[in-house]
Amino acid sequence: MMGKKLFAATIGAGFMSASVQAADVEVIHWWTSGGEQKAVTVLAEEYNKLGNDKWVDTAVALGENARSLTMQRILGGDAPGAAQFNTSRQFEELIEEGLLLDLTPVAEKEGWKNFIRPSSILNPCMKDGGIYCVPVNIHSNQWLWTNKKVFADVGVKEPHTWEEFLTVAPKIQAAGYIPLAFGGQGWQERHVFDVVMIGMTDEKFWNSVWKDKDPKAASSDKMRKVFETFGALRQFTDAGAPGRNWNDATNMVITGKAAAQVMGDWARGEFAAAGKVAEVDYGCIPGPAKRPSLTLGGDAFIFPKSSDKNLEAAQMKLASMMLSPTIQAKFNNTKGSLPVRADVDLDVADACMKKGLALLDDPKATITPANNYITEDTNGQVQDLVSTFWNEPSMSVDTALSIFKGIIEDAE
Fold first, then answer.
1. Does the keyword Cell division apply (predicted)?
2. Position 312 pLDDT exceeds 70
3. Coil, strand or helix: which one is 84?
């Protein structure tokens, strides 16, 4: 977490890199997989068609690395024109310190509050009457991606709950397949943990932990079952999991080396890029849970302040373009995510995207992500605990519960 003195020292330091021309917008993002690269190319090419301003691409592998670079660049007086974050509290200190461009003029002119849905997507962008980011998509995390042929070969049905997965996984393993394609990186371990938590509980319990920060819920029998189920998944991954990128794990499912993967809806872009057909070659199971629920987060772009009025105009133009109906349809169909506006042409939506849209229309099936309620510091503590528990099977559930309770008690 960054201190105010460090932020204050950078105010007025100048935010534009000397190596980038004033009319160009350098964009830092972490979209580096095959499907993601196709999606970000849509944004870059469409922006370049608008006029003399150009999209200058800076792709950085892994979200935490990209966000860290952005913070360093802003603090060093060498900010990019735009940068990707998640729709969360990740950039709230930048807003508080007055380092981000207020997009309210273009937002009011175009009526963002009228068409961006749900409200939880735009809320993290708003503070003290201003709007400081552009949400470009709606991502949902709770999906189990499956290889149809593997399940057919083994002769078992695709699981729709975690109990069902733990029942069929040994049979899949005995048949010579990896039951669960897994990427051993901190954010992926936390990702699966959250998916298990929602799948094993419900929205009320989720909110009691993350929104209400209730230590009793954090140390309850329900939470114990979450840790037990999460730990039980270890035996169904492979030895090559540590350090594996998420898209490499997705490729294991695409190529039939693994039966399934827990990953967000962005995995759909990898299947599409590989020429696979939804619900024919691969399956997409929301949840897994008896009653599927999806956390609705997504990606957003912030625009650091600049004294260069030409750059500011280019930033406003890019912000507007990202939310146009045409771009929303093109980008999200490629990315695997859902558009933040409902008035776009989704005739090309595949079977998996339609499942997501149906859940999006059900107010009882959508949940606010944990990182909308907790600070980045608290989020990091939870991720560290989850990673330690996953990678050190000797850690007992009792110990994990005790640490988790303490984190939630002190959460901000």
1. no
2. yes
3. strand
